[in-house]
Amino acid sequence: MNKTSWKSILRLLGCIAAAFVLIYLLVFIGGWRLLESGDMVMIEIAVAVLVGIILWLFFEQARQYDERLRQLEERISELERRANTGD
Question: What pTM was estimated for this model as a whole?
């Protein structure tokens, strides 16, 4: 695996961890009533993984758009430099 995919995996794990924290905060302030049915731990894990994956997808999409934008900015500056020098 290359360095980018490791960073991507770490971002996914970070999003899942953030989702766990958010779920426990929700449960702490009384949201546990929403999760009363069934095995509470399994529901929390499933929700945290789902929310984490959704957050990760948003972050990855934003990162890809930022990378494309950076490449376009570099290309534009290169074209402007060529136009100014007359190449």
Answer: 0.51
Q: How many domains does the chain have?
A: 1
Residue by residue, DSSP assigns the chain as --HHHHHHHHHHHHHHHHHHHHHHHHHHTTGGGGG-SS-HHHHHHHHHHHHHHHHHHHHHHHHHHHHHHHHHHHHHHHHHHHHHHT-
- Reported as a pLDDT band with limits 50, 70 and 90, residue 46 is confident
What pLDDT, in 10s, does the model give residues 28-39? 776 666 556 666
Residues 6+ apart with CB under 8 A from 80: none
Domain that holds residue 22: 3-85
